[in-house]
Amino acid sequence: MIGLDEKDLKVIEILTRIGVKKQIASVLVFLNKVKSATSKEIEIGAELRQPEVSTAVKELKELGWVNESTVKKKGKGRPMYAYSLSVDFKEVVKQIIEKKRQELEEEKRKIEEIVKIVEEM
């Protein structure tokens, strides 16, 4: 099973520091590395608990960054799914950075507004 290396962990750490949930960052980085994986493979490879994988995959699907496909398996039982990035990893990071920049600009405007109001008091 492929796991995360030092470079992957550094990317996860940086994404987490700028506000991305750790489980989201871990799943994104892991799927970028393996291209496609089941929930169990993500759990093992990204070192997450099953509920964290489920929550992260759900959020990533809602964002349109992850695809879900049914995996053929023998016998009966619950269907298995494989997950893959639907958007290039570099594009995902670009979108995250752009969103963060917009948030920072909004915070900067708020700071400037409060400074102006306080100076006029």
Instruction: Decide which structural class fits the backbone.
Output: mainly alpha
Q: At the third CATH level, what is the topology name of the domain at 6-87?
A: Arc Repressor Mutant, subunit A
Name the CATH class of the domain at 6-87: Mainly Alpha
**Low-pLDDT runs:** none
Q: What amount of the residues lies in strands?
A: 5-15%
Number of DSSP helices? 5
Question: Which CATH-level-2 architecture of the domain at 6-87?
Answer: Orthogonal Bundle
Spell out the key features of this protein.
121 residues; mainly alpha; Arc Repressor Mutant, subunit A; three-stranded antiparallel sheet; 5 helices; elongated
What does this structure look like?
- By secondary structure, the protein is mainly alpha-helical.
- The chain has a domain at 6-87: Orthogonal Bundle (Arc Repressor Mutant, subunit A), CATH 1.10.10.10.
- 63% of the residues lie in helices and 12% in strands.
- The protein contains 5 helices and 3 strands.
- It has helices at residues 6-17, 22-34, 39-45, 50-62, 89-119; strands at residues 37-38, 66-71, 80-85.
- The chain has a 3-stranded antiparallel sheet with strand order 1-3-2.
- Strand 2 and strand 3 (80-85) form a beta hairpin.
- Helix 1 (6-17) runs antiparallel to helix 2.
- The longest helix is centred in the C-terminal third of the chain and has 31 residues, at 89-119.
- It is elongated.
- The termini are far apart.
